[in-house]
């Protein structure tokens, strides 16, 4: 790079900024999963969950993504909440005995189920704290705990229902092939339990995996 001085003054011109587009993170996940081909459905399931889709005409729609107070069924928060409710029912004797209870007490480092009240209703307790309990269901389900297995089965059904809803609203439910992108800690957990469960529900709906 070289420069030369000049007695003549040079005029400066302002370059207009490039266009900026703001997208939902679901759109970004869909683009990454389809290598930029924005057609298909993405489901993200971590603490919360959202299902988002785009068809060939560019129409978009979503299901879930309402947040923990209004929905997000099948999410880490939802699974965690179901685990905690099952623990309370088991402690009361209103529900089935489950290994979820001792596992949750150990995870939270508390001695009695009654202490769940202070923990759950603490001002510092957040959605992420409830979701942190979710992995216990996978551990207990692998060991044969029916309560844990039922919770995860219900979660898979909820997630599959969101995919089905988006596909139907976009006219993708009759497509010969459907691009489905999955993301988030719950769906991408190492055992593949949730992916397999959602796949089974979709196979019963579409006759395909």
The oligomerization state is single chain
Strand order of the largest sheet: 3-2-1-4
Task: Give the fraction of residues assigned to helices.
Answer: 40-55%
Low-confidence stretches: 1-7
Q: Return the structural class.
A: alpha+beta
Topology as a string of helices (H) and strands (E): HEEEHHHHHHEH
How many helices? The count is 8
Distance between the termini: 58 Å
The count of strands amounts to: 4
Quick structural overview:
Helix content is 44%, strand content 10%.
Written overview of the protein:
- 44% of the residues lie in helices and 10% in strands.
- With 209 residues, it is of the alpha+beta class.
- The chain has a four-stranded mixed β-sheet, sandwiched between helices.
- Strand 2 (49-54) and strand 3 (60-64) form a beta hairpin.
- The chain is globular.
Any chance you could write out the topology, listing elements then pairs?
Elements: H1 25-33, E1 40-45, E2 49-54, E3 60-64, H2 76-92, H3 100-108, H4 115-120, H5 127-131, H6 135-142, H7 146-169, E4 180-183, H8 193-206
Parallel strand pairs: 1-4
Antiparallel strand pairs: 1-2, 2-3
Helix pairs in contact: 2-7, 6-7, 7-8
Question: Any descriptors?
Answer:
209 residues, alpha+beta, four-stranded mixed beta sheet, disordered N terminus
